């Protein structure tokens, strides 16, 4: 503590004017002081400066001899440098340069006339030992070198060129410029006027010829890039050299020796990378995050140890001025334009300033979570626009579920939508059920064509006489609302889709602002491995989303962490910003071009079937008649087969045959009743079975004789007398009535 206090006091003594005046004002003060000294010397030559001027002149002659004649010019020139220099704190540098020039000039004058002492006492003290030690000519070289050093200092301070990239940045001092360590800084790219003009011309040419060939041999014009905002912002990271020195000094004070390796300036944070000495544990560095934040006066900071693909550790420090990443900059990039993947989406820019993209077909599903206002909805808008700029309405169909009712209202007239945005939870469940049914139908179509996935199926469709399949993307803006009202049904349907729908071109994007285990359940996390975490409130929320900490240290406003099966560790990305005006312009253009979109009959049939499914009432379980996937029981088909083959239906009978409990057997019996397989309860009489074994389509194999014998034996044992039969039926029906009341 005493050492640091003494160091601070010493720094204050060395900078007496910093606490009172600004850097520019300090230079002006010293410039005025040097001008005052030069005027005194000039007037003293004409005996116009009084006793003070006479003392100045006699002191100058005593010290420098005839060099006093050039002192007014030196002081005027130094004053001029103080007024025009771009550096700060140049008093020491300029004084040192002036002293070198005076010593060199005085030494030369003294060496040619040592008896007359034309160089004054400074020249004599400097000249005598040099000539004795090195001789006359070496002494002359030393004197001229001193003059040259002074001139170099004057020239550098006076004629320093102004860099365009340094506009608006604080200029470092001359001493710091020399002694501050240099780092390799990778900054966000900037464009000159010619490059920007050339880029606009190339972009306009691309827009003119960019026509996507429709998979059904029709053409669809993609929206032009002129509808999007063309801003390109650049961040300001602050004094990179100073912060690098602070990081190195802070780590060394805790016994961690490091070597600074480089600096990467991103749109949101600046990453300072360094290589620790051998034997240093990474855990020791990560535990110093709060100490580094205190030393840098920046919060929060994030330590990445190690950086993926490098033997370095990275410290991510927030920028002084962050920049937004606009979607046009990423869409017009060659990586996006030349990609053959239909479901390529823009993610944003990483800490290196590089544009990042993701292929939704390889994810194949995405989970997005973060607190309110962290940028989730803007990110979903970015995904929708990325898909629109790559696919026609026949190639891609989108289903939007918006329980908040206002987030996706701008997309009502988007031709890519299979239906208007769904806002009712009951309709959302029906939509998920329809997607499962559509998935099953598509698997049958792929099986008929002997194709493994939608890609090979569409390749065969181009050569065959059948229509290709379009991709379907489901986007849910608030999963928590669905899980709170229809939790079990929604979870079962999402898990079913996430497990199997990739091969048939159905992809899910789920977003929530409540990252809890009740919403993001273990089954959902296990089947959706690609996840994005925006800023969250606590480390527990971060672990719920990513299974690791880090999201609690994000800065919000689009700052996110992205993990997938293709990445080893999470990547920090500044998400793309999409404004509401851009969406309105795009939708206005699409509405004007609506006549250009020709819907196929197959797609019309899909839309009709989806709308029919959405219009079903919540109590309508007609989906159960198809299979046991749509919120029904997986044993439904087996129960139906047993009832039809045995011409017998009761809850206790299903209990014995399926080896299940009474509540489940009663639910199966209710489903059979609703679907018209068996009749309603008739008191003591057994239920009627309306479907015969001959007309039952699912009866592929008849029951063998042994099973029939077993059933008969069971029936004989269970029914010894007619009175017992009636009593048993009465008990069963009373149980059924009690269960229905419950």
List the helices and strands and how they pair.
Layout: H1 2-14, H2 23-45, H3 50-64, H4 71-84, H5 91-112, H6 120-134, H7 136-158, H8 174-179, E1 185-186, H9 193-209, E2 211-213, E3 219-221, H10 240-253, E4 258-265, E5 269-276, H11 282-286, H12 289-296, E6 302-304, E7 313-318, E8 325-326, H13 327-331, H14 334-337, E9 344-350, E10 355-359, E11 366-369, H15 376-388, E12 396-401, H16 425-448, H17 454-463, E13 471-476, H18 479-500, E14 506-512, H19 522-527, E15 530-533, H20 539-546, E16 559-563, E17 571-577, H21 580-592, H22 601-614, H23 636-646, H24 651-658, H25 662-674, H26 705-718, H27 722-741
Parallel strand pairs: 1-4, 8-17, 11-14, 11-15, 12-13, 13-14
Antiparallel strand pairs: 2-3, 4-5, 5-7, 6-7, 9-10, 9-17, 15-16, 16-17
Features:
27 helices, 49% helix, 742 residues, Rossmann fold, ten-stranded mixed β-sheet, 4 domains, alpha/beta, Threonyl-tRNA Synthetase, Chain A, domain 2
Question: Major beta sheet, specifics?
Answer: 10 strands, mixed
* Structure classification: alpha/beta
CATH architecture of the largest domain: 3-Layer(aba) Sandwich
Low-confidence parts, pLDDT < 50 over ≥5 residues? 13-20, 161-170, 177-182, 187-198, 203-218, 598-602, 621-631, 697-742
What is the CATH level 1 assignment of the largest domain?
Answer: Alpha Beta
Alpha-carbon distance between the two ends: 74 Å
| Number of spatially distinct domains | 4
Q: Compute the average pLDDT.
A: 76
Which fold name fills CATH's third level, the topology of the largest domain? Rossmann fold
Helical percentage: 40-55%
**Structure annotation, total helices:** 27
Gyration radius, rounded: 41 Å
CATH superfamily of the largest domain: P-loop containing nucleotide triphosphate hydrolases
